[in-house]
User: Which sequence fits this backbone?
């Protein structure tokens, strides 16, 4: 990490880390939904 980033207040670094991690988690969930698709389930009714 650059020195100027580490000299920022701790709350700013924590908020930036939180927003970045939440964005990466959301991006990973969306990517996983498109890449891995479940097989279609059989019909639930016996008809």
Assistant:
């Amino acid at each position: 990490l650059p020195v100027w980033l580490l000299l920022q207040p701790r709350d700013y670094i924590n908020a930036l880390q939180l927003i970045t991690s939440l964005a990466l988690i959301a991006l990973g969930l969306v990517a996983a939904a498109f890449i891995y698709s479940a097989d279609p389930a059989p019909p639930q009714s016996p008809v």
User: Anything to note?
Assistant: The chain has a mean pLDDT of 82. The first helix runs from residue 3 to 6.
